[in-house]
Amino acid sequence: MTKLTETQSIILTAGAQRPDNIALPLPKGLAGAAAKMAVTKMMMRGWLQEVDANLRRGEPLWRETGDGHGTTLVVTDAGLLAIGIEPVVVKTADPLHEHTAEAPAVKTPTPRKGTKQAALISMLRAPDGHLVPLKRVAVLTRTEGAAEITRHDLTPAVSVSARIDGRGFSAAIHDVRQALATPGLLPAGVHYQLAGLYLQQQQAFAGLIQVFIAAALLVFLALLFLYEQFRMALAIMVAPLLAVGGVFTGLWLAGQTLNITALMGMIMIVGIVTEVAVFYFSELAVLRQNHRGAAHPLSLSMLIDAGSNRMRPILMTTLAAILALLPCCPWA
């Protein structure tokens, strides 16, 4: 048997009696530089080994490695042989199994057959029955998992964003839909949903179209209440509906697509053109009243006179609307 000092003998003997052959804590009075020197000599001879400490089991620390981790000291097989103990005989798991009935408080959970835990323990148990620490047969590497997992309706989801440059939004969405519709591109059970700015735009379009329809109906009701004639109200409503077509012509000439700003302009067109039409038809109603009452049929001269008399307010209203909306043009 190897000749040992009293301190070395105490450290190895105490470690052989502890679970997992842990050599800590060191004997009383052995601390500081003396402890470091003694442990270093024993590690150089292969009697002690520095391994990662299992903080969950409360293993004592020998050296901190940072991030809440550290190492502990265990007695190696050479250390056990140095004190005359066979490594196969003295192991930590056997006493626990032998005294399970006497000390139920230290019972460890028994892994169920077929589980990953049972498979792992079976790999770490030697043929003779003793346990081999995982740190002696494998290199443990700490890695970080996913910081965040996004789910929608308990289904894993991945968000993909992109920036469009040099082309229209609708054309890009059309190409994306065609690409995603390619057979075999998405695995079975995987589906997609277009969201983000596209979804906000679609919701805004739907809301503005509802506002446009509501504005046209309200204007028609106001004209019907003002003139008390369906024919007169319908004739005035034709003007803003035809003017809406001019919006699409202007977008085509400017090389722009239909967007939220254009839809807001269409709603404003309904009010502006209706106001101009009211100027004209109000003057026409006055001319008919002056020519033998309202029952007098319309003539070409009356239509021309109504336009001449109201040319100034109509022109001023139109120019004011154009100049007010001019800063919204892309080239302005």
Written overview of the protein:
Residues 89-107 have low confidence and may be disordered. The chain is rod-shaped, with a radius of gyration of 45 Å. The relative contact order is 0.05. The strands form two sheets. Strands 1-3-2 form a three-stranded antiparallel sheet. It has 332 residues and is mainly alpha-helical. Helices cover 52% and strands 6% of the residues. It contains twelve helices and five strands. It has two domains: 6-106, Arc Repressor Mutant, subunit A (Orthogonal Bundle), CATH 1.10.10; 197-328, Multidrug efflux transporter AcrB transmembrane fold. Strand 2 (63-66) and strand 3 (69-75) form a beta hairpin.
Q: CATH-wise, what's the superfamily of the largest domain?
A: Multidrug efflux transporter AcrB transmembrane domain
- The overall pLDDT, averaged over residues, is 77
Order of helices and strands: HHEEEHHHHEEHHHHHH
First-last Cα distance: 98 Å
Helical residue percent band: 40-55%
What does the main sheet amount to? Answer: 3 strands, antiparallel
Structural class estimated from helices and strands = mainly alpha
Tell me how many strands there are: 5
Gyration radius from CA atoms, angstroms? 45 Å
Trace the largest sheet across and list its strands.
1-3-2
Q: What count of domains describes the coordinates?
A: 2
User: Low-confidence parts, pLDDT < 50 over ≥5 residues?
Assistant: 89-107
Overall geometry:
rod-shaped
CATH class of the largest domain: Mainly Alpha
Strand content: 5-15%
Which second-level CATH architecture of the largest domain applies?
Up-down Bundle
